[in-house]
Amino acid sequence: MESELSSVATELGDIWSLVRLQFQNLALPSRLWQLALIALALVLAELARHLLTPRMRNWMRSLEGMPMWRLRALLVVNRRIRLIAFTAAMWAFYLIVRAITPFPSRSFILELVATLSAGWLLVVFGSRLVRNPLLSSVVRWGLLVYVTLWILGLRDEIADTLDQLAFSVGELRLSALTLLSAAAALTLLFVAARFLTRIGTDRIRSTEDLSPSLRVLLVKVLQIAAYGLAVYAALKLTGVDLTGLAFLSGAIGVGLGFGLQKVVSNLVSGVIILLDKSIKPGDVISIGETFGWVNTLGARYTAITTRDGKEYLIPNEDLITGQVVNWSHSNNFVRLDVHFGTAYGDDPHLVRKVAIAAAVGVDRVLPDHPPVCHIVGFGDSSVDYILRFWITDPTGGLTNIRGNVYLALWDAFRENGISIPFPQREVRVLGDGTPGRAAD
């Protein structure tokens, strides 16, 4: 370990000596006027940003009918006008100096800065292809560091230094270079996997021949396979011996198994739900006091949207172990009940006919599944009935359709002289209410 640290110190000392030598050479006249040209390029770039950015923004606002991807590209260009102008100015100065003098030392710094700015510009534009903000930042800064070291000629020296910073786990040797290479490869492969899964997901969801549950299942399998292959390929590309990770991964797996037991249970429950097709996107379900339709089936939870706009995230394990009412499991036919009562003086045969006719006239009530009305009891002040009818769109709400049926019953009963009683109490006063006279 001490020998490795001493070699690392030697490498860092050599790099520092090289950097210090270059800074000492900046005092040469041929280097000073190159620095002056770089400063002039910075001034021109700032002037271009000040003049062109607002004008280009106003021009973009006047565009109509242009595809969204072109507008995004123009927006990126608008935000990077200063870097674009600086790169153009540096290459112009470099080409002019090379045309004037044949000595490479007179344009060395100009060429270096121009190449660096061009590399940074390509990295900035290339990282915009990654839509995830965090992942885009990681890719951008990682590529900026790599491109800078490569252009400066320090890549091999830094790589050797990082490779000497290592430790061993059994037969497995892990160095800082290996970890950074694995992280870089994993990031790039994750970007590729994310891009491919997005394309595959769009194709799967646009296929009408597949059921909703099968679409969700295929999307999950595609994501697991793509990201799993990305991790495996990243480890293989960096030269990590997977056999050496067997013991370490086993120990980590046991620890995570206890800590992530609920997470794994929800993942397995989600796969079971997709396989047995008990719940699928678009189903109307009730679980506890929650009633709504299934919006999405996630790996860990199921999103249920209620009629009032609330979205409940129900863990998949609760859908497996608890009681769930699926209103549209095998078909969309749902029967609803409405209870009401009429006075004892009303003809029950007429009441039943009027109630059935009123329900048939309500929108969303199915006429081909005729409503039925039955007497269910004789109450204290009314004859109690139940009216049953069918609908096929439970996603449209249940309370509102019941309310419409009640309104139809109210109107129909008033037209036919049928009264809806309410509890009454009759108080009788016995006697004349005066106290008895005293005996003579």
From TrEMBL:
GO MF terms, alphabetically ordered: mechanosensitive monoatomic ion channel activity
Mechanosensitive ion channel MscS C-terminal domain residues: 338-420
Domain Mechanosensitive ion channel MscS: 263-329
Cellular component annotations (GO), alphabetically ordered: plasma membrane
Pfam families cross-referenced by the UniProt entry: MS_channel_2nd, MS_channel_3rd
SUPFAM superfamilies, per database record: Mechanosensitive channel protein MscS (YggB), C-terminal domain, Mechanosensitive channel protein MscS (YggB), transmembrane region, Sm-like ribonucleoproteins
Chief location: membrane
Keywords for the protein's UniProt record, in alphabetical order: Cell membrane, Membrane, Transmembrane, Transmembrane helix
Subcellular location as annotated: Cell membrane
Annotated coiled-coil segments of the chain: none
Transmembrane segments annotated in the record for this chain: 32-52, 73-96, 108-126, 138-154, 174-196, 217-235, 247-275
Residues in the signal sequence: none
Topology of the protein relative to the lipid bilayer: Multi-pass membrane protein
Family according to the record: Belongs to the MscS (TC 1.A.23) family.
Record protein name field: Mechanosensitive ion channel
Organism phylogeny: Bacteria, Pseudomonadati, Pseudomonadota, Alphaproteobacteria, Rhodobacterales
